[in-house]
């Protein structure tokens, strides 16, 4: 039924329509069972959790439990809890004017009880859309009890002629306003201990205290939390009584394969631009994803903080932007990113890394460049680089002979293609490994750059920060002459 035109408008109409009260957890459970039976997707756009996180969330909802998503940054925790809205009914009836979404048949507030006593079946009702039943709060140290629970409003008391201890003088906080809906708290450990006690008291006893006045509100709320494991020791903690009453602790994780990570990045990154058609070679996407995977294993990077999946997403967007800049300047009709464009995304890499002491000594820029080179080398091997070992010798010999190649990331595809053709066997290697479309100079150029970057990673040739390829530095053995 679209809109609310034909929906009941009074409590009597609602009764005659056969309405019966049910808790929000029963509502979530019922709609979840319907989706499971119909084979409908539960969390569209969430990739890689089908066999791990999602089944645990399903179990928690079926068990009518409050739960917490525990994981490092960039693991889609907030996105998941926001999609829980889709498990609510399309709309819900409340007593009109109620601040706490009073059930027309079972009001919990004094306002709702008085309205029902005075109007009976003629009491007006309103309809709340499912999106309005989701309340989210980012926990910060400055959050107060008044923000979450509520506070006495002297102005309301004066206007209504009420004493301050009257429930009608309360300005309700976020949690009571989430009654009969979902209340989500992001980064729970950052919430002050006394606020967590307030949450625990409502979960346990169903009552609250405002300015010393005890008020019993049997709130009907699905509580969902998120937290970063680092928070338990670095900034705060979850108090034990509250933690004990959270039904399920569900641990999220980063993609466990390069392919899965590439799928997530491809889904989330803004790639297609309105200036030109964008064609991102598969090996460039793979190289970008490998940077994140290598960063998550690097001991110089703080793994307790994690390396967010936002890193490859923002890197890919920046890489495409650098290639777009080149295409616009060079009047090219297609945007084709190259491995050299990844160096233009250094700010997107360094900004996503928290360094250990050793990393601070080395510097984020140096570490990022090393990750790019290693990612290029690993990608080249994954595309069959070992099968062209003999041809690579010809490429290395070209630079060992004193030749230098510098095209820069602003060189248009045709000019770069002509430059790479001067390097023996290089273009042939790209075509043999199918690193780029054989009919596209832009794709061939990208493939040539991958081969050269792989040789740089193997220290067989050298690359300057300006993108100048030369022979590798001569090594000097201990006590000997340079070779």
């Amino acid at each position: 039924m679209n809109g609310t035109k034909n929906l009941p408008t009074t409590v009597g109409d609602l009764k005659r329509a056969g309405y019966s009260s049910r808790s929000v957890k029963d509502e979530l459970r019922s709609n979840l069972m319907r989706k499971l039976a119909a084979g409908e997707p539960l969390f569209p756009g969430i990739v890689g959790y089908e066999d791990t996180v999602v089944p645990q969330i399903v179990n928690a909802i079926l068990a009518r439990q409050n739960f917490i998503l525990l994981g490092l940054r960039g693991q889609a925790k907030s996105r998941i809890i926001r999609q829980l809205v889709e498990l609510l009914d399309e709309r819900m009836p409340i007593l009109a004017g109620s601040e706490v979404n009073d059930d027309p048949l079972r009001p919990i507030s004094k306002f709702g009880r008085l309205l029902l006593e005075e109007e009976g079946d003629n009491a007006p009702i309103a309809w709340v859309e499912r999106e309005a039943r989701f309340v989210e709060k980012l926990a910060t140290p400055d959050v107060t009890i008044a923000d979450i629970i509520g506070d006495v409003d002297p102005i309301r008391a004066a206007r209504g002629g009420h004493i301050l201890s009257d429930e009608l003088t309360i300005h309700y906080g976020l949690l009571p306003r989430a009654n009969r809906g979902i209340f989500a708290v992001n980064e729970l450990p950052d919430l002050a201990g006394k606020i967590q006690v307030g949450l625990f008291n409502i979960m346990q006893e169903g009552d609250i205290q405002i300015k010393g006045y005890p008020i019993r509100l049997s709130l009907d709320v699905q509580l969902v939390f998120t937290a970063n494991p680092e928070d338990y020791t670095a900034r705060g903690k979850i108090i034990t009584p509250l933690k004990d009453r959270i039904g399920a602790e569900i641990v999220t994780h980063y993609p466990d394969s390069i392919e899965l990570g590439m799928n997530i990045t491809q889904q989330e990154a803004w790639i297609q631009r309105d200036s030109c058609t964008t064609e991102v070679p598969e090996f460039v996407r793979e190289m970008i994803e490998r940077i994140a995977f290598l960063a998550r294993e690097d001991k110089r990077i703080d793994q307790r903080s994690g390396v967010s999946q936002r890193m490859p997403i923002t890197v890919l967007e920046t890489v495409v932007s650098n290639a777009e800049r080149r295409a616009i300047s060079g009047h090219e009709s297609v945007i084709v990113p190259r491995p050299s464009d990844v160096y233009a995304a250094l700010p997107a890499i360094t900004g996503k890394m928290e360094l250990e002491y050793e990393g601070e000594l080395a510097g984020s820029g140096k570490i990022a460049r090393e990750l790019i080179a290693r990612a290029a080398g690993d990608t080249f091997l994954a595309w069959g680089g070992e099968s062209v070992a003999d041809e690579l010798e010809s490429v290395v010999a070209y630079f060992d002979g004193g030749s230098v190649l510098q095209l820069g990331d602003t060189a248009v595809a045709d000019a770069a293609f002509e430059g790479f053709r001067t390097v023996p066997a290089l273009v042939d290697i790209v075509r043999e490994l199918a690193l780029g479309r054989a009919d596209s100079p832009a794709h061939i150029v990208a493939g040539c750059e991958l081969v050269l970057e792989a040789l740089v990673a193997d220290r067989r040739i050298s690359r300057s920060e300006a993108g100048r390829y030369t022979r590798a530095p001569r090594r000097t053995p201990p006590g000997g002459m340079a070779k």
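Residues 258-471 form one domain. Residues 476-483 have pLDDT under 50 and may be disordered.
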